[in-house]
Design goal:
Helix content is about 80%, strand content about 0%. The chain is an all-alpha fold and about 425 residues long. It starts with a helix and ends in a 7-residue tail after the last helix. The model is unreliable at about 220-230 (pLDDT under 50).
Amino acid sequence: MADIERATIRRIGWRLMPLLGLLYLVAYIDRQNISYAKLQMVDALGLSEAAFGLGASLFFIGYFLFEVPSNILLHRMGAHIWFTRIIASWGVVTLLLAFTPSAPVFYLLRFLLGVAEAGFFPGVLYVLTLWFPARYRARAVGLFMLASAVANAVGGAIGGWLLDQDGALGLAGWQWVFLATGLPAVLLAPVAFFLLPRAPESARWLTSEQKRWLADELAAPAVAPTTGHGDIRATLRDGRVLLLCLVYIGFPLGAYGLSYWLPTIVRGFGVSNTANGLLNIIPWTLVAIALWGVPRHAARYRNPIGHAAGPALLGAVLLISSVLVDHVALRFACLSLAAAAIFSGQPVFWTLPPRFLTGARAAAGFAAINSVGNLGGFIAQAIVPTLRDWVGSDTAPMLFLAACLTATGLGVILVERRLPRPD
């Protein structure tokens, strides 16, 4: 049985994770390209930092409003159909952003980008519960989220270079950023439709023994599977779901607050756009290492709380340290390590909802937690620029992000005590 288990997980991993990771890489680049485009787009549209930050943050409002409906449709229609719709629509909106003529159109398109992408990340989390037994999920989520680190590194490398192509073929550098990052999503839509596997029982690349082993492993969830609109509404009223929604806010807030501002902070070091992008590869390389290692360490020692709350608290300490040190290199080192800490706790956090949610309830629960939590991204991109404008330095934004991460770390510890214990 041990041989069957290893072979099954390995085969599922190779069939599922590279494609999902590639799709998330493109999604994250399309979500974060705004941090580089803003270096020119602010002046092009005649906006202040705060006004531009508000427009960028409208992505998360659209995301919040349509996340749960999107995941319910995913449960009914299947990942291959619904992910294809999501990918194609966010690619089209990204391409349209390249031709933004005014601030109102920019606000509308950022909102529509959130609507288009809503449901993808929690949809993947839900799909992983259909393919991986509980003890493998943190590692699977960690591998999936590696794509976000790669996306930031790749986005940084090409984002700065694209800005320096300002004037090529009559287009501004910020326009090239959107064109070059939107086209891959459109091209990947049919790939997702044809290559995403439908369900374990119909997977031709699994043997009968492997299918039987997987079915047995997934047949005993923490709660009995339930479906139906009443169950979904009950899930959204579940106090544990609501608490996880609130607790999760700090992770996206810290992640988006840091990733949104890193290119601006690095530009303050006096480097070129291309050098800015290359320097930003460093923190995301550390994020990738942490996303690979922390979930594995958590699974080995069966300590989800220490590996979810601990990184959040460490990230808060590092953000505070970044404003206390004077040397540019030390400040950048603190921010880079903070990014690794903030991202590495999230895969372990996502092992908590499946302790009490399955089936349609899991789809709705993942979507609710992610949609409310991602309002942290709205706060980061709307409030952080405003704080910076008020204070005139990066100190207040970093302290604000640190306070939110501290609340998240402590909140994870408190909420976990209310959940069923893992097997």
